[in-house]
Write a structure and sequence with these properties.
The chain is α/β, with parallel strands linked by helices. It folds into two domains: 116 residues, 3-Layer(aba) Sandwich (Rossmann fold); 98 residues, Winged helix-like DNA-binding domain superfamily/Winged helix DNA-binding domain (Arc Repressor Mutant, subunit A), CATH 1.10.10.10. It contains eight helices and twelve strands. Strands 2-1-3-4-5 form a five-stranded parallel β-sheet, with helices on both faces. It has a four-stranded antiparallel β-sheet with strand order 6-7-8-9, with helices on one face. Strands 10-12-11 form a three-stranded antiparallel β-sheet. β1, α1 and β2 form a beta-alpha-beta unit. The structure holds calcium ion. The site of calcium ion (CA) has 5 residues, from loops.
Length: 233
Amino acid sequence: MNNKPLILIVEDDERICNFISAILTSNDYHIIKTNKGKEAISMAASYSPDLILLDLGLPDLDGIEVIKTIRQWTEIPIIVVSARGQEQEKVEALDLGADDYLTKPFGTSELLARIRTGIRHSPKGVNVGYLESEKKTVGDFEINYAKRLVSIAGKEVHLTPIEYKIIVLLSKNIGKVLTHDYIMKEIWGPYTNERQALRVNMANIRRKLELNAAEPKYIVTEVGVGYRMIEGI
Ligand code: CA
């Protein structure tokens, strides 16, 4: 099939840009690239790529502004590339509509996994039926949406309605990081701040799902950002 996904790389560090380009090209992606924010916006509009990898620190325009502009007209998945320790910036990017982030330095397998997840969650990817499937399995974990049933190794896990809602949200966005604010809005509505309730519910969920709640393998904490359900175990 000659239908390779097209990735737009926006990165002003030439070394990193070449590294990403080499990996993606050898893994059957088409790439286009730029080192400027304004050009990124016009390329996103004219090429309609399947996914955008966006460095936040660009010479002409802040990456945050690029996200705001692009999100005015398209839901193309955006993965933000950011330096270690810039959690606030990552949260801002995610809340403005970025889909995920990578922290420099990152490895090949991490980059490819995030891109696969991003493309699958894109508006174009939804028609593969992935998000509409009746159940989802990860390792010993299974959720059956039709029966509203969660089990571990075939054994039913008893959950409160809120715990179940949180697991549905995370599993329907499997592989993606969800920010604290996003989860709170989805579960409790837009006008509340239930950070403490989220923390308590998450602790209870882990106690029920995880063999070792201190080293969770299904739902991991992204420190300072939110939670992510792991895709493959
Ligand atoms: Ca940069």
